[in-house]
Amino acid sequence: MRAAVLHETGQDKLEVLDDIETAGFGPGKVKIRVRATGLCHSDISAMNGVLPQPAPFIPGHEGAGEIIDVGDGVTGLAQGDRVLLCWLPACGACPACKRGQTHLCLAGFMNAGTPNFKRPGGDVFGFAGTGTFAEEVVVDAGCAVPIPDDVPFDIAALIGCGVTTGLGAAVNTADVAAGSSVAVIGCGGVGISAIQGARLKGAAQIVAVDPVASRREAALTFGATEAVSPDELADAKQRITAGEGFDYVFEVVGKSVTARTAYETTRRGGTMCVVGAGAMDDHLQFNMFELFFDEKRILPSMYGGGDVLTSYERAIALWRAGRIDLAGLITHRVQLAEVNEALEQMRTGAALRTCIEI
């Protein structure tokens, strides 16, 4: 079968090969025919080494498709079922799961170190234990979440990561208050989803911050009340909040420099929500006085900060009701053979989300 492979961490292009086979199918596993997958910035972060991932590997973790085989012991799933892929399934038994923090379960991360593909040259890993830039993938049954027949594969794929992450940051983690002021730094697919979440929660002002003009323009169509470039943010803070700072600021880039800007743009007693996934060696500094004196809440948001299955259901319900726009997030479409075009669209900021049709 065909798949897009990164041979070594640090390479900036993928090679589409046709000698890939799935590996690891057996009890407790399912095999999925991937139909659509989104390109998330985390895929690029894994390619360049910001996020740890053994290589060679197949990127992609935001996908949807059909089950083509079910291993022994799997219940509730059958051949032909339409599913989205959950890259961080909850085991249900660890301390985090028992506390109700299923999004912090580490069981899914263990899958990243077990190869689920192979080729004549040896084992190939799937990013985050999935690897959706492939025609087929073998995953734990818990990674396959059934979706209703009226949800298209491309929409379901987005719900599998970017939409859940951004929407949940505003709705679950920050719990944006009605009438509040919000700034979102970084307006790709996740940032736009955070904007939609803030709008749903009733924020009065939502300022989208991004260096790319097309993304700023798009943000206005998804609920932002104003869109500015990074060097215009200070002026927006002064105009909208009289210099006090925003009630909520979402950092959706994953860099210490933008996180520091987010902190400084948040009012005293306000909430800074960290959504972007950054590097382990990129350190953010605070002095002890400002932490105490400003009493700003710093809230990291992992995968939307709530039970992902509940978040999926909520996103589908809101999409059906027309309360959130998911189709509009897909600004570009490519075939698997054109995957490097998708990478370029992400790197330049031309795309909110590129759907790779497989």
- Low-confidence stretches are none
The amount of helix comes to 25-40%
> Count of DSSP helices?
12
- Count the strands? 19
By secondary-structure content and strand pairing, the structural class works out as alpha/beta
Shape label: globular
Please tell me the overall pLDDT: 96
What does this structure look like?
With 358 residues, the protein is α/β, with parallel strands linked by helices. It is built from twelve helices and 19 strands. Strands 4, 6, 7, 10, 11, 18 and 19 form a seven-stranded mixed β-sheet that branches. The longest helix has 13 residues. It is globular, with a radius of gyration of 20 Å. 51% of the residues are buried. The model has no long low-confidence stretch (mean pLDDT 96).
How do the strands and helices of this protein lay out in sequence?
Blueprint: E1 3-5, E2 15-17, E3 21-22, E4 29-38, H1 41-47, E5 57-58, E6 62-70, E7 82-85, H2 95-98, H3 107-110, E8 117-119, E9 122-126, E10 136-140, E11 144-146, H4 153-159, H5 162-173, E12 181-185, H6 189-200, E13 205-209, H7 213-221, E14 226-228, H8 233-241, E15 246-251, H9 256-265, E16 266-274, H10 288-294, E17 297-300, H11 308-320, E18 330-335, H12 339-348, E19 353-357
Parallel strand pairs: 5-9, 12-13, 12-15, 13-14, 15-16, 16-17, 18-19
Antiparallel strand pairs: 1-2, 3-8, 4-6, 4-10, 4-19, 6-7, 7-11, 8-9
